[in-house]
Amino acid sequence: MLDDAATRPGAAPEEPDQEAPPAWRLELRRALLEVCVLDDVDLVPTETGLSLLTPDGPRELSARRAALVVGDRRAGDPELRVRLRSWLRCHAHVSAAHLRTAELRPLALGRGHALHPGSGWVRERVPGGVLDVGLGVVGVPGEAGAAPLWPDVVEAVAAAASGGGRRAPDTDAAWRASRLHLDAMGLLAARRVERALRARLAQDAGRSGGPDGGAVDGSGGGSGGGVVDGPGPELTVIDPAGGCDAVTLLASAPLRRWLARADGTGLRAVAVPTRARGWTDLARTDSTFVAAAWAATDPDRRGLQRPALVTDEEVVLAPHWLR
């Protein structure tokens, strides 16, 4: 089901049985042709929408369904093409066999993210109102990392399997396995971060005993050191693990627990401006770097626009005034 997901806050989704205005149909058709030409998605426009070649044969997708994917985005919005591209590539790649293999992964996306398919995709909401978790699929051609498994793709694959006398894939079982995988990767990421932190502390201790006797302060330099402009090699970095990107790892209880308790405060600020990397040492980072890194990232690869405050149970965005 595609629903409120496709729209951003303050905009209502179009009803599935509502006829789209002619001008919007023209915009949608133009966007679909852009995806076809620029992103190499093999589709054929039809009178009612489009025809797409999938592992189960040609599949008809209506203009109304495409309009629901796009939501309130209009021509010129970079998220319009990104959403259509992800949705069409998922349809073109995923079959029942994919839904029974290790190609499925947990995927966390911020609410309002360019690729968020909507509440029908969500399997778990991380307390704090920032992250939703659902199923993703790896190996989709042209997509970096896990791509969201759009709900209508699952419905189409199940219908094709039933029509061919085959057993429909059990996505509930796939989710249970993915959820266990997420916590295992979160524990692995926590151990990696802890090792990196211990190594850095040992290095800093060695520096403090050097000839100059200068202690290393919290800004990443010596007694006169300044703030590092961006995440440098000294920072404690959160890297993807086992097909789970840095944002998705924040949905893992073991990693949140380690982050929150590592310094004894029960709260940790974490920057994850891209899905590819996060870091924990915000004291060593220029206050504007997180927002700048987020803005410089392609919409489909963006993480969280502001630093996240992480506790054992919650992930919330830091207030705008926090520097």
Secondary structure layout:
Blueprint: H1 22-38, E1 43-45, E2 49-54, E3 57-62, H2 63-70, H3 78-93, E4 104-110, E5 122-125, E6 131-137, E7 147-148, H4 151-163, H5 171-208, E8 237-238, H6 246-249, H7 253-261, E9 268-274, E10 277-279, H8 289-295, E11 308-310, E12 315-317
Antiparallel strand pairs: 1-2, 2-3, 4-6, 5-6, 6-7, 8-10, 9-10, 9-11, 11-12
Helix pairs in contact: 1-3, 5-7
The number of helical elements comes to 8
Proportion of beta-strand residues: 15-25%
Kindly report the average pLDDT value: 81
Alpha carbon gap, first and last residue: 40 Å
- The strands making up the biggest β-sheet line up spatially as 8-10-9-11-12
Task: Please supply descriptive tags for the structure shown above.
single chain, 323 residues, alpha+beta, five-stranded antiparallel sheet, four-stranded antiparallel sheet, 8 helices, globular, disordered N terminus
Can you tell me about this structure?
This protein is of the alpha+beta class and 323 residues long. Among the domains are: 1-93, no CATH class; 175-200 and 228-317, no CATH class. The protein has 8 helices and 12 strands. The chain has helices at residues 22-38, 63-70, 78-93, 151-163, 171-208, 246-249, 253-261, 289-295; strands at 43-45, 49-54, 57-62, 104-110, 122-125, 131-137, 147-148, 237-238, 268-274, 277-279, 308-310, 315-317. A 5-stranded antiparallel β-sheet has the order 8-10-9-11-12, sandwiched between helices. Helix 1 crosses helix 3 (78-93) and helix 5 packs parallel to helix 7 (253-261). Residues 1-17 and 210-233 have low confidence and may be disordered.
